[in-house]
Design a protein that fits this description.
The structure is a single chain. The chain has helices at 4-11, 15-22, 32-44, 51-62, 74-79, 81-96, 129-135, 161-174, 204-215, 231-242, 256-268, 302-317, and strands at 66-70, 101-106, 120-124, 141-145, 155-159, 180-185, 187-189, 199-201, 224-227, 250-253, 278-280, 297-300, 325-328, 330-333. The protein has 344 residues and is α/β, with parallel strands linked by helices. The strands form four sheets. It has a six-stranded parallel β-sheet with strand order 2-1-3-4-5-13, covered by helices on one side. Strands 9-6-10-11 form a four-stranded parallel β-sheet, sandwiched between helices. Helix 1 (4-11) crosses helix 3 (32-44) and helix 6 packs across helix 12 (302-317). 38% of the residues are buried. The mean pLDDT is 86.
Length: 344
């Protein structure tokens, strides 16, 4: 039977390095070449982890009390299915690692005492990290997803907000657009204590849109509007943009539901898409491929986000001390709504 020592001898590394690579220890500083060589040798030698070791880890994980705290209500998840998909992927990959997510806690009905006895907690959304720290045990392992406020103690999984904005603006400017509008969402800094009102802050897309467009000397504040993440307010925000005597020739909209409403406003005003205004949304929800015209948007890798959060929690529950901030890239999906045209 192949052992870790056999793999180490073939790979010319220590047994400790092989063990940490095979167990996906992300804190290990090792080159991709070495990591890949270890996995190739392990596969070639048909290495299989000890069944007893696997059973021991599974038993330890199954005894952990783990919760999932989301800032979204069930109604929010229906309006923007991305939120529900991320939560589902977290639960699925936790289960594969032997972790049972026992509690889905929503911030509109959270009892802070429900967090006290948890061994692990995954938090989706922007919420006060100080509130979380005050509400959980000092031994609770916490992983945040897309929290815009970092904490020196807790792991964080986020998408590359700035890289996404840069990619979208590069796509639009390369297509000849210099007047670019933006519809962002309302971003709340949530508190666990419902007696303390949530603070309205700029969402990351708004921050980076202003920053990148200012660097390009193209920023026009009159072309920036705020909505509430749904089609109705996306519609109203686009109506406000169209009321200006000068209109942008392109618009980035921070989620697809708002983009759906914005497109309806454009169609009502007789504005041709993309000939008179190009549109780019965000989330790549299923309906965007079937809109008229099909909507350019940004694909976020929901499964990878969920998988990474689950893996980070697994590692923390197994003793990893180093904090990790994992950034998951995005992918621009170019469709007819932002194809190059001749009227910009």
């Amino acid at each position: 039977m192949t052992t870790i020592k056999d793999i180490a001898e073939r790979a010319k590394v220590s047994t400790a390095t092989v063990s940490r690579v095979i167990n996906n220890d992300l804190t290990l500083a090792v080159s991709d070449e070495t990591r890949n060589r270890i996995f190739m040798i392990a596969k070639e030698l048909q290495y299989k982890p000890s069944r007893l070791k696997r059973m021991k880890i599974e038993n330890e994980m199954s005894s952990k009390k783990v919760g999932f705290l989301t800032m979204s209500s069930e109604e929010d998840e229906k309006g923007d299915p991305t939120l529900a998909f991320i939560r589902t992927w977290v639960e699925s990959h936790c289960e594969q690692l032997g972790i049972k997510v026992g509690k889905i806690i929503r911030n509109n009905s959270v009892d802070p005492n429900a967090l006290k006895n948890l061994d692990g907690l995954i938090v989706l959304g922007t919420i006060s990290t100080e509130d979380i720290e005050a509400s959980v045990s000092e031994h609770t392992k916490v992983v945040f997803i897309n929290n815009t406020i970092e904490h020196s103690k807790y792991d964080l999984v986020s998408i590359g907000f700035k890289q996404t904005v840069e990619t979208i603006i590069d796509h639009l400017t390369s297509s000849g657009h210099s007047t670019i509008g933006f519809i962002g969402g309302t971003h709340l800094f949530e508190r666990l204590n419902r007696s303390e009102p949530a603070e309205m802050i700029k969402d990351p897309f708004t921050v980076y849109f202003e920053e990148v467009m200012t660097e390009l000397e193209l920023f026009r504040p009159e072309f920036v509007k705020r909505a509430y993440w749904d089609p109705a307010t996306g519609y109203e925000a686009m109506k406000e943009i169209l009321a200006n005597p000068i209109r942008p020739t392109a618009c980035f909209i921070a989620n697809d539901p708002m983009a759906i409403g914005a497109l309806k406003a454009l169609q009502e005003e007789g504005v041709q898409v993309p000939e008179e205004m190009a549109l780019v949304g965000f989330d790549n929800i299923e309906i965007t491929a079937y809109m008229n015209p099909p909507l350019s948007t940004v694909n976020i890798f929901q499964e990878q986000i969920g998988k990474t959060a689950a893996q980070l929690l697994f590692e923390k529950l197994n003793g990893r001390e180093a904090r990790i901030h994992s950034i998951i890239g995005t992918q621009l999906v170019i469709r007819e709504s932002s194809k190059v045209n001749k009227k910009v």
